User: What shape does this take?
Amino acid sequence: RLIRTTGSNEHECTNDDLTSSLFLQVLLVFAKEDSQSNGFCWACEKGNFRCSMARTPESALECFLEKHHDLVIIDHRHSRHFDAEALCRNCHINLWVLTCVLFLRPDREEASVMPLINAGFNRRYVENANMMACYNELLQLEHGEVRAQFKLRAGNAIFTALEQSQEAIEITSEDQVIQYVNPAYESIMGYQQGELIGKEIMEVPKSEKNKPDLLETINSCIRKGKEWQGIYYAKKKNGDSIQQNVKITPVIGQGGIFFSPDIQSSKHKDRRKGSLDVRSTTSRGSDGSSQRRHSSMARIHSMTIEAPITKVINIINAAQESSPMPVAEALDRVLEILRTTELYSPQFGTKDEDPHTNDLVGGLMTVSSRLSGNEYILATKQPHHIPSHLTTPLSLNDIPPRIAETMENEESWDFDIVNLEAATMRRPLTYLGMKIFSRFGVCEFLNCPEATLRSWLQVIEANYHSSNSYHNSSHAADVLHATAYFLCKERVKQSLDPIDEVAALIAATVHDVDHPGRTNSFLCNAGSELAILYNDTAVLESHHAALAFQITTRDDKCNIFKNIERNEYRTLRQAIIDMVLATEMTKHFEHVNKFVNSINKPLAALEENGLSCSFKENRILVKRMLIKCADISNPCRPQELCIEWAGRISEEYFAQTDEEKRQGLPVVMPVFDRNTCSIPKSQISFIDYFITDMFDAWDAFADLPNLMQHLDNNFKYWKGLDERKLHSLRPPPE
Assistant: This one.
């Protein structure tokens, strides 16, 4: 049932009300005006139907194709004026005609009507100009033929929706014989329709993970006419068990019987207002009597049309009804929080409590509104081409010995990227990229020559700004190294496919390309061209991803994607974009919380029972977490590298604050004033609010004890400096 609200009034509206409120469109095809045509015109007016009149077959067909009438009435009394049968056929060919009406003179009733039925006419009206007779005929047509056709159309639409749905759907009869499964069910479970239709549910293998009495609980619920919803372990054709959120809904037939003959549908009609309540249509005989069909139940697997947060809110609302007052009040507060849009954004106290934390977190996680008339123009220049001094042939065999030596331990977490930066004259990304991509077989996967990969790495590195103290190609090389390290962890390898590994390596390489050394908040406040282009949303991350593909595809010499199949390219591109966008800090807590809830918690339960499992179903979350941890892993590096990166990022923030003051822009992070900032405090805040929880979750998944030991040591180092009230990177010399 539908509640339609208008102002303060509510009107309860049934399906029949809705159907009768539809204005039927009627096309009258009469060669001449007479009392019969006038009778139907009056009947249409009385019935509030929309009526069109046509005098010729040509104008009738033109009008019909334009307005798609629900009812076509063709005058067949004067056959010399036009061929009614041909007109009816044309209407059927060009569009589904709901109803055509045949007129016959009383003295021709004995003539055969079969040719006319074959032409598409489906009702006869013996000539009668009485206005009420015409009106009654239209009403019978509306409530019989037309409404039946409406329902048939709706049924076809529902069937199409089931076929196109990405949720697995299974429909059974009341005696639990499978009547239908949709293509999504076939895809997910591995069965074909022919293997299931006509079988009883009990004949399909069940997972042993379900509680023994689960099926009896479900059936008991269904017999009572109630919907059942919960966790169910289904067994695929290949024997694998998968956990699913299942919703099973009994469907009530119009005949009024639901499963048991003694249970009337009226008792259950309005019981499930928030659930799926599909009624089977009834076939009508000529005498108007209805035949009852078997009722059925739809088994809808996975997520329903409701959003998960809506389900949570509904469950809490239901729990409130039977809760004592203190609990109900507490649940009110919970609902108030859940109804906000920023569920993953942390809320802090006043700035006086911890200005370093508030400035750092606020600067990284919020997009400030523009408060100045000054505009910051980030040059939208064409991407750099490969500098001429970099175009010499280069392969792994051609790498100079001094550079090769610095990369000998690149598979170790303690690899020193700063040494490689110095050895390569600030071009570490090309050399390290060549070695790591070769180790992972990227050229073989992409079917591209090593020379193309080399050119691509060179042009990507050329588009990093060497003038940035932090966001330069050395940072990109560092993130690429961390990504490669994580990809070698056993559980990560089990959860990802080769295409995911290639996407992760490419995303790490390009994730900060053309970074201007300023934050998103700065660009939005300054009204930069990039902020305008991307509507102040994930400005830099969107730019990095877009520019990377622009650079790659504009020139065959560096197009590493040119030899892969189109669908594979689309999958790879989507994965790369998703990972680059995941490095945006405004979504940090959302990504971490999703990883914890979808991966860490199920993993803990599996390990508690001595089970192991890959997480291929959640590999998007794994890839996002992987690149996020690689991107901000500095506090987990050996102490000297941690100190080096802390100095570089601080200098970049100092430069931004200097420019904000110079340009008269809002100062996003006031504590990053080079004259007053405490670098130890900023590092402590960064580790406390961003690093610890994230790497605890990542370590629980990927097993990274060495990183966690470095993190502990580095935190103690910064704490020691802060306790001595030092603001610098290092203590003063003894």
